[in-house]
Design goal:
With 194 residues, the protein is mainly beta. It has one domain (24-184): Sandwich (Jelly Rolls). Helices cover 11% and strands 46% of the residues. The protein is built from two helices and 13 strands. It has helices at residues 3-19, 23-26; strands at residues 42-45, 47-50, 55-58, 65-73, 78-95, 103-110, 116-118, 127-130, 135-137, 140-142, 145-149, 157-165, 169-184.
Length: 194
């Protein structure tokens, strides 16, 4: 191998290695597994706490919603945004026969304008789950994992917001949120050694 080829390999191999790292090492979303509590996330309203390596949403008696959010840049070569969600409800609290059920929603907004990038028709969220078991999304659901194609928004600055909407439906609702991540395409590594 000529010296010129070796010099090229010394330069290009670290670049290729960086691009081919697992998504969690270079995606700009931080602490999606909540292993560092709620660091990197903002609790905007209500009651969202560290559940022990997951985010725990609970109905707040003083607020109709509990909100957890994070601004980040969707990385180049992004494929899907995904997260795991488990909703639990038990009898309790005030009851109004005209109240809507408690619900958990997820929204992906433009970080600057707060316009929804993707949503169900007529609403800002792309995912909805209420305590009657009704679920609606423009993404896909497999078990407790929700996935959304974000390949069209690579490079966008976004606000990802999760909300628990409570009300006097006679139920006390909580949500466990975990494994929030953005997957990316992995480029093949080709060795340039002759």
């Amino acid at each position: 191998m000529e010296k010129q080829d070796f010099t090229f390999c010394r330069f290009i191999f670290p670049v290729i290695l960086f691009v081919c790292m697992p998504p969690t090492l270079y995606a700009s979303l931080s602490n999606g597994d909540f292993s560092d509590g709620l660091n990197g996330w903002t609790v905007e309203y209500g009651t969202v706490t560290d559940g022990g390596a997951y985010a725990l949403f609970e109905e707040d008696a003083f607020s109709l919603s509990s909100t957890l959010s994070q601004e980040f840049t969707i990385p180049a070569l992004a494929l899907e945004l995904s997260f795991d969600v488990v909703l639990s409800a038990e009898a309790g609290g005030d009851y109004d026969p005209f109240s809507w059920p408690d619900a958990f929603t997820a929204s992906l907004l433009d970080a600057l304008t707060l316009d929804p990038l993707v949503a169900n028709p007529g609403v800002t969220e792309f995912y909805y789950l209420d305590n009657t078991g009704y679920e609606e999304t423009v993404g896909t659901v497999s078990g407790s994992t929700v996935s959304l194609d974000v390949s069209s928004w690579a490079g966008y600055d976004v606000l990802l917001s999760f909300d628990l909407w409570g009300g006097p439906d006679g139920m006390l609702t909580s949500v466990d949120l975990d494994n929030v991540s953005v997957s990316v395409t992995r480029l093949p590594v080709h060795c340039c050694l002759a």
